């Protein structure tokens, strides 16, 4: 098992390049297996564990994955003849649920073991299932395996009861190979939805309206390979913006799409932080003491839930009271107890965290309960007095590439250490 040891107190300064988006990449890999008999080459992939595990899963299914460089994968799915994804790897991440839509579209049949992912409250997949059923599939769950099959998939109109990223993408995947047109209403609008639609269209799909709340998918008879580059990671970029602001630093974050970051920019500016946007980079100049704000997480273009936890860390030392309301997940405040160990004054009441800013956090031994909790604790460690030790960093490695190298290049002091007597 590995830990991060962070010596706090350094301001972040300099330039940093953002990698490809995790939540786009983890949908593109399953989508790539839908190519009938040619290769999909995907570039600008983040070097994160979720992508590595998905590549392993594709190999387990019989596909070939050329991993000659750590940003590019070529996926040859000709050898995939099974529709069963039931290995231990499938349980390691949330996004393996995209194999359901991809294999249902490809084979008319999919069996996928229940996915894992961040433990941030109940994460049902009823809207995915509702979508598959509306397309004509039968769905049952046996021994923890979701089984979906259909003699034919027929396009239809599907209204999502909740705005769901996963359901929108999963239905889009299956509907690409349905007969006729499918319309997803109340669809999610996140940047990665658009990226997946663009990728599928490069494979020969016919998807219109991605990025709005109505997506139309005209089924096609075949999908072919393509070459594609993943969009920059909105959440990694936002994490660096928050880290720069937290340390009162001055960081230019390169390879971003500023439009995707507007909600974060707006909130940081409300805190008194200076944010300067350019074509494909954003400069964040922190202040000595930022102001507390109120914040509510919402589906895109609202403030992303995935940045709620990092924001809580910086607000714990902002001037005055902040109220952070988590409207997407019911248990995404596990990082709060850890921040309290570092001296933060935060009270969780239902879906809200009430934060009374203190002067300074103090370093402590803390545990990352999930990916973005880990990011929040890293930011807390950067601004704390003394040393912070973060355990369970495997969650962080699921979704941030070279995180300590990137932060250290900006002046942080972070070491990855092995815990004595423990195995990886
Ligand atoms: C791999 C990936 O892309 N993960 C992201 C994806 O997760 P994920 O796709 O799991 O998130 P969803 O957008 O589906 O979930 C949003 C909300 O809808 C609920 N819901 C969802 C599906 C469903 O069938 N029924 C239902 O009730 C969920 O419990 C949650 O409250 O979007 C989330 C919201 O932006 C992000 O936090 C995750 O980082
Ligand atoms: C919740 C997240 O990831 P996942 O859906 O993969 O668990 C996240 O990226 O913040």
Automatic annotation (TrEMBL):
The active site is at residue 118. Residues 7-407 form the Enolpyruvate transferase domain. UDP-N-acetyl-alpha-D-glucosamine binds at residues 94, 123-127, 306, 328. Pathway: Cell wall biogenesis; peptidoglycan biosynthesis. It catalyses: phosphoenolpyruvate + UDP-N-acetyl-alpha-D-glucosamine = UDP-N-acetyl-3-O-(1-carboxyvinyl)-alpha-D-glucosamine + phosphate. One of its GO terms (cellular component) is cytoplasm. Keywords: Cell cycle, Cell division, Cell shape, Cell wall biogenesis/degradation, Cytoplasm, Peptidoglycan synthesis, Pyruvate, Transferase. Phosphoenolpyruvate binds at residues 22-23. Its main location: cytoplasm. It comes from the Bacteria. It is found in: Cytoplasm. The modification 2-(S-cysteinyl)pyruvic acid O-phosphothioketal is found at residue 118. GO terms for biological process: cell division; cell wall organization; peptidoglycan biosynthetic process; regulation of cell shape; UDP-N-acetylgalactosamine biosynthetic process. GO terms for molecular function: UDP-N-acetylglucosamine 1-carboxyvinyltransferase activity. Its EC number is 2.5.1.7. Cell wall formation. Adds enolpyruvyl to UDP-N-acetylglucosamine. Belongs to the EPSP synthase family. MurA subfamily. This is UDP-N-acetylglucosamine 1-carboxyvinyltransferase. The lineage of its organism: Bacteria, Bacillati, Bacillota, Clostridia, Eubacteriales. The gene is murAB.
